[in-house]
Fold this protein.
Amino acid sequence: MSDSLLYLSRDDVRALAISPGEAREAVLQSFRDYAAGLDRSIPKTALTLGPGHGFQAMTAASSARQIATVKWVAMAPVAAGSTLPAVSALICMNDYATGMPRAIIDGDEITLIRTAAITAAAASRLAPPRPRTIGFVGCGLQAHAHLAAFRALYPGLTTALTMSRSRASAERLAEAARATGLAAQVLDDADTLLAQSDIVISMVPGGPGMTPFLDARRLKPVAFAAAVDTGRSWLPEALPAFDVLATDSLEQSQAPYDAAGNPVTTVVFGHDLSELAAAPHPTAPAGRSLFCFRGVALADLALAHLAVGKARARGLGTILPR
């Protein structure tokens, strides 16, 4: 057996052009496999150094795909307008049976794709069936990945609303939305965005002085919200306004997190993707639902497997000696 490693750079992963649909299905299948006992993972381990600053390790293994993966993630606060990423990641893939290392993959691009795929997978089980307006609170790279994922999931969308601490980033996302055929508007008021959106995606970075400002009571009676920011931007006292609360992994999280990184005490999650991957929630699409998540290793494994398979088929990447 070869002792070499396949290395996939950020440009390599981008060149694979993984579609939102295949990413979403890969994530759902991994949660189905987990429910069937074929995939395993443990909650992420974290070394927290301060608000928005720390390091995490995310580990999973799949007998269905015959691989195991670990993703090493670094997080650091960034100033508004900074070109530095708030999150940096690398993925190592090993053979399930032998333990031999097989690939090293840039984790930043995989994280962008898989995070949007997790949100879209949850929306396909929880959101109203024919949303027209999507609102973005926080307009960095993840917002652009989510725009692509939700345009693919809901081709009937007509309008995007954008809001960010950086007006320039909100304008860029609005322009990207217009390029896909959506009408787009930059807003400065969170209540207005919530009141007009069928779907809301919050992606507010953590950092010193960050305080929650999104009020779930301002949402439409039928709406889906996804807190990619683990819930830090949502007022804890207003979270009971949601009819259904779900996360990616109940093993990892029992409740949303506040601005200080602590679980809130006002609500608890009732569902996760290992349950929802099998079938949509029976009542969530007719009320207010929240999907709030920290990210789970199963999804990284699913996207890493997809990326390596496509790269080998197309001869992309660099072979490294060990």
